[in-house]
Design a protein that fits this description.
Elements: H1 26-48, E1 51-55, E2 58-59, E3 76-79, E4 82-85, E5 91-94, E6 98-101, E7 107-108, E8 130-148, E9 161-175, H2 180-200, E10 224-233, E11 239-245, H3 255-262
Antiparallel strand pairs: 1-4, 2-3, 3-6, 4-5, 6-7, 8-9, 8-10, 10-11
């Protein structure tokens, strides 16, 4: 079925089967965690979808009180706390405001994860050139809380240590192009809306059962777009931020938000 046109982007899950006298190792513990993580990701991806659920507003920095009324420093933006679901079903939680520099690509506080290798840091063009950037976020993980590793009696390395925790984190980056997944998802939403419209117009007498939507597409793109930023190069080889738009943001409404919309 791997080459079938109706195949699904997923695989069967394996969970541990415990029995008396079983020898448990670190690999078994990791397998248990991986099963629960994949189960939660599958639930998010197929039942809820992906996108921004709450918060994650993108704003210009406010002028510091007591200073001049000049414009705030260019290149920098603030991302407010919030929650999103990645295209792979991972939770993305931002628990404190994050400052992002569009010119250098720096994020403060810095992400503890390995930076995504691409796209490259945006380089301002000539003075007066206007272009668009897409500020996006992805789920990430980092190792934390190192502990000493017990060594054998004959071991000579008494300072060995390893990380004992994995912290869920995120990375924010300015993309130079809108991810293809966002374009494909928008087209899929339009096709599904058209299918529902045709079903409603078919009449109640010979109406077929409610159509079943297609499964989400397989993708390796991890980015969730937060905002579309219009920028312009200036004489200082930095950027003037002209506009912040949410036209390309994909919104994933929570159950409570849907209830407020649908219930009288």
């Amino acid at each position: 079925m791997s080459h079938s046109s109706c195949s699904v982007c997923d695989e069967p899950l394996l969970r541990l089967r415990y029995f008396p006298g079983q020898l448990m190792t670190a690999d078994d513990m990791r397998a248990e965690q991986e099963f629960l993580l994949k189960k939660a990701r599958r639930h998010n991806r197929f039942l809820h979808g992906w996108g921004v659920t709450c918060g994650l507003d993108v704003r210009l920095p406010m002028p510091v009180p007591g200073t001049s009324d000049e414009q705030p420093p260019t290149c920098k933006l603030w991302v407010c706390p919030g929650y999103a679901v990645s295209p792979q079903g991972d939770d993305i939680v931002v628990d404190e405001p994050v400052q992002v520099d569009l010119c250098t690509g720096r994020q403060e506080p810095e992400p503890c994860c390995e930076p995504w290798p691409c796209p490259p840091i945006f380089t301002p063009g000539r003075r007066g050139d206007t272009t668009q950037l897409w500020l996006a976020i992805r789920a990430a993980e980092c190792l934390t809380r190192p502990v000493r590793i017990p060594v054998a009696a004959c071991g000579c390395n008494e300072t060995a240590c390893d990380y004992s925790r994995i912290r869920e984190s995120f990375e924010i980056k300015a993309l130079t192009a809108l991810p293809q997944l966002h374009k494909d998802a928008k087209a899929a939403d339009a096709a599904w809306q058209n299918t529902i419209a045709q079903w409603r117009q078919s009449g109640t007498e010979n109406r077929q059962p409610l159509p079943v939507p297609p499964c989400p597409a397989c993708t390796d793109e991890p980015w969730v777009v937060l905002a579309t930023i219009t920028v312009r190069g200036n004489a200082q080889r930095t950027l003037d931020i002209l506009d912040i738009s949410f036209q390309d943001r994909r919104v994933l409404l929570s159950v409570s938000a849907l209830q407020q919309i649908l219930l009288p």
